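Example 271, ligand calcium ion.
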Amino acid sequence: MRSSILVVALLAAACATGSDPAMTMPDAAPTADAVRPPDGRPDASLRDAPTPDAPIPDAAIADARPDAPIPDARPPDAAIPDATPPDAAPPDGPCRVQLLGNADFEDTTGSGVDKIIDPWSTLTTKGEVPFFIDSSDELGAVDAFSKEGDYAARLGTADNVAHQLFQTVDVPAGTKRLELSGWFWVRSTEPPPAHDFMKIEVRDVQGTLIETLGTLTELDKGDDYVQRTFKGSNATHGGKARTLVFNVTTDISKPTDWFIDVLDLEAVICE
Ligand SMILES: [Ca+2]
Ligand SMILES: [Ca+2]
């Protein structure tokens, strides 16, 4: 009997220590860890779901603004920096324009009464003078000479004459006044006071006197050419045709000659 009890006691002890493989308990029920993916991360479908009210990135907002200023845009009414006012004088335009043709008489051809003197014309109202522009030979025949070249004008020459040498020119718009310069030689035996006159006139195309630029009489006589300038002041010539007239009259005795060469009639547009 004592041996039986010992066996039972030994069996009980063995069961209490679990040392017997036959006494191992079955596997426990699965826990929460058992449903995780092998890498241990949370469920991927939950992790990647978008948040409904997520903010739009800043770049997208900047591009979407309809009224954003364009940095380089010029306001529609911005002034152009180098624009020229419409009424300003052209910066490179001439201030003076020479108007005469054949101004030194060197475009004259021929001799005697057969000369072509364009664009000059002549008019005789009293006395007889066969021609008004002389060649060097014709000048030499009366002990005279030109200032330059082979031709010069010669007016007067006799007693009791009235005649004109004239040329019509187009005066540029914007002209403020006219100015004539040239070489003039007055030769006379008249004593003072003045009896013989050469008036330098500006007329319109109808012949109406607009302005007298100057007058040379026998009081201006000398032995050679003198350079002279006659400044006009009339401001109405611009944009019109005007006629420059050398208007000569002599009295009944002691004639006067006016030799003229190398003229320059200028339209003064700016001073
Ligand atoms: Ca000449
Ligand atoms: Ca005289």
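Summary: The domain at 100-268 is CATH 2.60.120.260 (Jelly Rolls).
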